[in-house]
Amino acid sequence: MNHALHCKRLAAADAIAAGLMKGSISRSCFFASICCIIHMIELARRCASLSPDGLILLAFKAAVSDDPSSALAGWSEADDHPCLWLGVSCANVTGFAYPRVVGVSISGKNLSGYVPSEFGDLLFLRRLNLHGNRLSRALPPQLFNASSLHSIFLYDNLISGEFPAAACNLPRLQNLDLSRNALAGPLPPDLRNCRQLQRLRLDGNGLSGVIPAGIWAEMVSLVQLDLSSNEFEGPIPPDIGELDSLSGTLNLSHNRFSGPIPTSLGNLPSTVNLDLQYNNLSGEIPGTGSLANQGPMAFLNNPGLCGFPLMVPCEAPAAPEAEVPVRSRGEELGTTREEGRKGMRKGMIVLISAADAAGVALVGLVVVCAYWKAKDQEKDTAKLGGGDDGDVSKRRWCGWVWAPPGNEKGGGRSSVEEGNEEEEVSGGGVEGELVAMDKGFKVDLEELLRASAYVLGKGGKGIVYKVVVGDGTAVAVRRLGEGGGGGGGGKYKEFAAEVRAMGRVRHPNIVRLRAFYWAPDEKLLITDFISNGNLAAAIRGRSGQPSTVAWPVRLRIAKGAGRGLAHLHDCGPRKFVHGDLKPSNILLDADYNPYIADFGLLVLLSLTTSSSHVPSSSSSSATALIGGALPFTSSSFSGSSKSGLLDRPNPYRAPEIRASAAAAARPSQKSDVYSFGMVLLEILTGKPPETAPSTSGEQLAPALVKWVRRGLEEARPLSELVDPVLLRDTHGKKEVMAAFHVALSCTEMDPDARPRMKTVSEELDRIGSGRK
Q1: What gap in Å lies between CA 585 and CA 575, rounded to an integer?
Q2: Which residues contact 474 (CB under 8 A, 6 or more apart)?
Q3: What's the pLDDT tens digit per position in 669-696?
Q4: Taking the model in full, what pTM does it have?
Q5: Rounded distance, CA 230 to CA 233, Å?
Q6: 229 with 256: CB under 8 angstroms?
Q7: Which end of the chain is more exposed for a tag (fewer CB within 10 A), N or C?
Q8: Which residues does 561 contact at the CB level (< 8 Å), separation at least 6?
Q9: Catalytic positions, please?
Q10: Model confidence pLDDT, tens digit, residues 251-303
């Protein structure tokens, strides 16, 4: 290494100095020797200037055999400290004259090599993130001498060896993710010492053997456990049911677990989403506790399992043979005939009753089918006779304008085709009945209420559940408060008309409403379930990890959300206002396509507000079975009442809505444009509005808007304003600046100065359109 060469030169300088002292070098070489000594001293000073933490990190650089992206090229011993190196973060520690390394994050760089034991000498290292590389070999036990470590992310590498039991010696370790590596062997009993561990992910390895009992009861802080896609065998340890701190998913799928499901798993919190698929489990599924709330997806591909919620009946155990008393032949024959006659009479009664019930059900089914067929013919006739040609032509025109270029979901249709598909909403519907918004939704109320439900979120608007129905389809079910007027049609008719208008909205970037339910004390909305969380989590990072969503994906999200909001404003069955747009209301699928949710929720909430009500039997059962169910979205703000939700602090809401002097103001399309501008600023900066550095100025403008405006006015470097992830794209800088101007035009204080959402969407579509 270079610093070793410098030390050799320093030794040579010492020899020259010694020669001068003995007088062995002539005076003619004296001055040249002095210059050489000074140079060697400078090299030695530079060699010794790098802090000890920096020298340790250079050991990691030496352990990397291939660095295709030159991620470590800037790591040099010529620096005083490593705090400016890529991926290194530092903090000042009392008692030290130089900053100490507290974080190392070099992810997704395809580095080849291994994790050196020298990392264990970084005593103040809190976070080690080397995921997405090609690091191999086993983890050295010395790594876990870094006693300040609380997060280790080494997933998506080639790390081999056994599970590092020494990791449990770390007193502050909270996150350990070694998934998708090449670990092998059994889990050690010492795992029970990881008492502070909150998230443990070991999925996608080659771990095997029987999991020892007595581990999980000691891990009192664990909230996430994923052991899927390994080779574990034997029974599931019953003490996993003692993990009462778990939330989210407990994933034991794709292993070789055998035997029955422990009934103790029913003691897990009701919010846990259990996954036991692809094992060799057998026996009847226990119906106790939280196990009774799991859907069939949790138990599929276990050939030996039976019982609810699987459609596999369990065989009744054979009755034990009773001892037959010794009788005379006459007594035996007489008794047998008498018992046979009695048994025959009972069997015939049951058979006849079952046949009668089946006949009545069949007749009822025929009558219902005939009724609905007649209703469908009436609707078709009404459509042919009238119809709103102007409205249809407007949607067709809007579909051509706003349909995304190309397929957003892999073979999907434009909004024109979506608008023509099953456009009518079910015409019937009364209180206490689940009303489907199109013919494609085949779930009835009883099936919905009996399905497993998992809490997705709670807030001022209510609770949102993920519900898995009988065929494995997942939907989102939301509760809209309580009350809603007395009996009769009153508010039910207003509510139903509002929801039906929502149900006619069709766009690739808007969450689809499937059905609704109204009863005096229960209002439910059923929508498509979008699987990949929301924009807020994508921008701010998930599970304690920084966001990795690059600029091209963020731009696509912004464009899709802009098209969806523009469709609500100008191209739907009528002009809607969202009223509460923010990152948490923009959902993402697995391909990061955006879907706007919760549009117009304030109107529906105003229609469900009532001071008193009398529960009906149907709604009471809904509350009991779903567990106090669920909120969603909807409609324009033509209603006169104003929800109390507007009084809550919300930096995404337009200043004219937040201002106390404008307490009577209702959300408008221009206030939606402001909210979209705030969302776009967060996409660009990675900062939520309330946490950006504040400056002096108008109190109504969030700090983020003022900070960005001032930064652009002062011509600050773009790197100071944007999320660093966005600067990695070669085309990103020019496009990011164009998006900043769009966002700032949306966040003008004067509503009249803001553009229409159609214009905003068109400007966003032009950004990056010239890329090849």
Answers
A1: 19
A2: 466, 467, 468, 529, 531
A3: 899 999 999 999 999 998 888 744 444 4
A4: 0.47
A5: 9
A6: no
A7: C
A8: 509, 535, 586, 594, 596, 676, 679
A9: 580
A10: 999 999 999 999 999 888 877 878 899 999 999 999 888 787 777 778 888 98
